[in-house]
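S1.2 Input.
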Amino acid sequence: ELINTSVDYDMLQSLLTGNDFSLYDTTNFKAQIDGGFYKLQTNNRHKVIRNIRKNEIDVSFPIQTLWLDSETFKLRQILLKEADKETQKFTAWYNNHQNVNEQQVPVNLIFEVKAEKDKVNITVNYSKVVLNQEITIPYKVPADYIKIEELKKKEE
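S1.3 Output.
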């Protein structure tokens, strides 16, 4: 709500695990070195922003910039913002990567949301990370439970 954009389950999961969005367009990135990281951003981004500001394109879409660790290629930072709204942006930093089941996983996440006049910072520190392990939820079906299909058959 703060930056007036929608976040779906895939985006939220990606943000909390330090991964890129699976449905985001990754076909046309411009790459460069920035502070020891690989910086990837949408190619022709400046041209698109210029056309939006000139009202030649009447659309607003999120622009994603990624910073990858040059040794591990793990995501270290994400910047999301609308092409036509420079004052509204979402930044995520992924720090303190630990080896879990032979995978580098960030255990310290910092999220910063900036809007016109507001700013919100959220810090997440994972105390325990488990990957690819089946989760069981203790639950017992009551003895008097009747499946819906069986109820329908009885009604017929």
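S1.4 Remarks. The chain has a mean pLDDT of 80.
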